[in-house]
Amino acid sequence: MREALFVKQNNNKWETYEKVPATHPDELAERFIEITDDLAYAKTFYPKSKTTAYLNGLAARLHQSLYLNKKEKLSRFSTFWKTELPLIFYQYRNQLLYAFLFFTFFAIVGAFSAAKDESFVRLILGDNYVDMTNANIDKGDPFGVYKEMNPFMMFLMIALNNIKVSCIAFVMGIFCSVGTVVVLLYNGVMLGSFQYYFFSKGLGMASVLVIWIHGTLEISAIVLSGTAGLILGNGLLFPKTYSRLLSFKRGAKDGLKIIVGLVPIFILAAILESFVTRHTEMPTWLSVFILIASLLFILWYVLIYPYKLYKTSQYEQNK
Predict the structure, then answer these.
(1) What is the pTM of this model?
(2) How many structural domains are present in the chain?
(3) Is 127 found in the same domain as 30?
(4) Are 194 and 125 in contact (CB under 8 A)?
(5) What is the pLDDT of residue 43?
């Protein structure tokens, strides 16, 4: 291959690697491997060219960054939660926004449909659930469903189900992201119709204070699962400077990291739903505190902290 063609085929990639900092250690390592491959090729066919000298310098800088980013004092577990996962959230902030918008839109559609058609709630939630809840409302205990099962068994059932839904939302992204959007549609419409049902019964604020004790974390985690699915699908659809296979592997790896990272959130949400939500008589201030604390945690760990971490890493790499 002529040197000019070699440069033309790889120039955009090299410029990206030079100007755009890697957002996490795995990406940095992959960049270093690719550049050393290109350098080896250049040394073989253009040993005294400026291209070879340029690649040698770029490889040296990447090697230095790789060494500086090596976490000697932190275990792999600590690095994942403190650095790697937040940077993934920042790197894929666009997919996160799309997942949030999709879910919100479908929730609005669900609420609107329930408002226009009384049978829609039964279609989505099922006759058994609606009849049971109507009976609980008549008895003066509209949220009695959270008190019927043994708390520990309820915890296991809810945690496993939520993790299953999360995995499905991720894996369905392999169908060019469309499968993930369908999962978001189903869950969004269900939430919208479910919430409208309680508002239509005059229990809107009461439902927020009770259900969103656990729902804040649970719904946020579902949106993040949708983000993981979109990352997987977009890796297949939009490979950019990577080969399609490599882009898909990167998307699968990063999406899977999000799913793993969501497991503790789903477990905490299941604990709240099984052991806390059932206490519908708790003071309003306590419900509001749990709800707001959950929301602030999600906003901080998924949006604010990743942004600050990225800016810090960018500053350190540019020093």
Answers:
(1) 0.77
(2) 2
(3) no
(4) yes
(5) 85
